[in-house]
Write a structure and sequence with these properties.
- The chain is α/β, with parallel strands linked by helices.
- Helix content is 30%, strand content 19%.
- It has 22 helices and 26 strands.
- The strands form seven sheets. It has a six-stranded mixed sheet, with helices on both faces. Strands 1-2-3-5-8 form a five-stranded parallel sheet. Strands 7-6-4-16 form a four-stranded mixed sheet, with no helix packed on it.
- 52% of the residues are buried.
Amino acid sequence: MNLEQKASLLSGRDFWSTKPVGEVPSAVLSDGPHGVRRQAGEADHVGIHDSLPATCFPPAVAVGSSWDPAVAGRLAAAVAREARALDVQVNLGPGVNIKRSPLCGRNFEYYSEDPLLTGVLATAHVKALQAEGVGASVKHFAANNQETGRMRVSAEIDERTLREIYLPAFECVVKQARPATVMAAYNKVNGVYASQHPWLLTRVLREEWGFDGVVVSDWGAVNDRVAALKAGLDLEMPGNPGNDAHIVQAVISGQLDEADVDGSVARVQEMVSRWRSAPAAFDADAHHALARELAADCAVLLKNADAVLPIGPDVRTIAVVGAFATEPRFQGGGSSHINPTRVDIPLEEIRKLAGERTVTTDPEGADLAIVFAGLADLDESEGYDRAGIELPGGQVELIRATAAVARRTVVVLSNGGVVSLEGWHDEVDAILEGWLLGQAAGGALADLLFGAVSPSGRLAETIPLRLQDTPSYLNFPGEQDIVRYGEGVMVGYRYHESADQPVRYPFGHGLTYTTFAVSDLTVEVTGDDTARASVRVTNTGERHGKHVVQLYIATQAGPVRRPVRELRAFTKVALEPGQATIVTFDLDTRAFAYWDIAESRWLVAPGEYTIQIGENASQVVAEETVKLAGEVILRQLSLDSSVGEWFAHPVVGPVLMGHIAATMTPEQRAQAAEHADMLRMIESLPMYQFISPLGVQIPAETVQEMIELSRQGA
């Protein structure tokens, strides 16, 4: 290819496909990730125009609450089969951005507030999708956590917070699943557009993580095409002939090295040639049945007073109320909006399972009333954020009015982002958080209500008492095109638990129709910075059920503020009544590490680490504390280092103390011992002030010798 052909290969032919150049064929990239949004007519990336029919599986907000990589994988494999049937080579997903605030309008496309849970589920999705011959596009890289000002806002984040919260899910997918593409986000990160960010796209993504696929722009995200290509962005979407010419001119003028162009061309060629599986047909009925099965694993039973659920034989009259009972809300708005092959209607599905019970729409005197409530399509969508987390006033009024006249009341929620339960929570008997469950939501919810399936979902995000209680409240969504991530690593439950902030329901909470017991926790140290934990889980109830074993680690080791506890491993187990199983977790270095700014790498500090098994992020049911040798870091000292750092240095500290002691009289040593606490008053001073003419007298050559000693240790 000549230079012009090379440049043309690096942007789209049209809205959804790449250009065929020479022997390189075109490839179709289409929105996902919980279905295929294949547009045959007018194209857009915000869900305005129609797309071809495809199964709408549960969106990521629901899959996150499954806590089950098998759910994510089975969903993705089915999506891949439909993508092949619709001649799609790359399905744009999954979205792995962290739920920093419950107000983000696109939260329904993301899994969780926790990077580990997000990374595990997304990795399963990508592996399964690509095993079926369709490429994935992990998005939106990086720190894309709001819709307000999304095309220009700068996310101001310190590196530790980036490394510990906002990058790990991407890192997990890249290293373990080798996705076909990574999609660069619209926003800026610390003042630089993500699509032209050399540190993100080259240093971190390619050099540190070893990514060898295509970096593709979000649709319309390229601000400066030449700067983007130099930074590591390969493919601009959609097409932009003017930018192709800019690449050519930049090479001719010497502004751009043609080797950079060649590298991007090679990666796009590899993507187009690799992801060209043979077309496949899919069974729409079978996929709908799968969507129903998966959806039932995702709903979260938040409350179930007096075991009102599942619906028992004593219930003779069931009232079903709320508009969502007949016009269900099952997906979000925007680029991931799927044209479903069919849609289950909750009221109809309830009638099918009700048997001889009377199903009515009048709650007056009913044995059980089921209120379908939640958020409408316009309440949350790509393109804008929510203003609050309250349910619409009419929904609250309906819930309270129903609870006042029915014997027992169940609320079934349909919402893509967290909603407040305040003002009505205590007036109802049970709450089933259905999130957005896809086109088979109606059938799945009926299965759960009648006990054909036991609920097993757990919250992947905290439900607060008030929006004001959330960690990003004062900083979201920023001002004047800047949003400061002032809460640092204290995102979601990390903040709520560390600040002892009460919530309505904590991260990891979820009920089922049986009971489980956790016992016999053992922890074995397997290395300086690794361990193995085992625990027995027993189904102590009378029904089959699934239990999510959540392992958290608590520590204050190291020089940084650590959250009270952090999720470090989890698994979901299915057990029959009376059945028990042993669950074992191998905890690697990263389970105990923090990102050290000074060393610019992950470190495990020496100290105590408590391995906790949590019923959720707030309730610990078993724990064991171990000591890890970790890694002792000998920091290089200078005259700008604090007095405290000098005295705390394991090599230099004793030498310094020896020099000072040698110059003191017995009376001075006695006074120093008597007033040892006074060291705290001066430990923040820089060393050059401590040894100034008005301070401690230490020869300059001795000070220099100690500095050299610290350098040798470092």
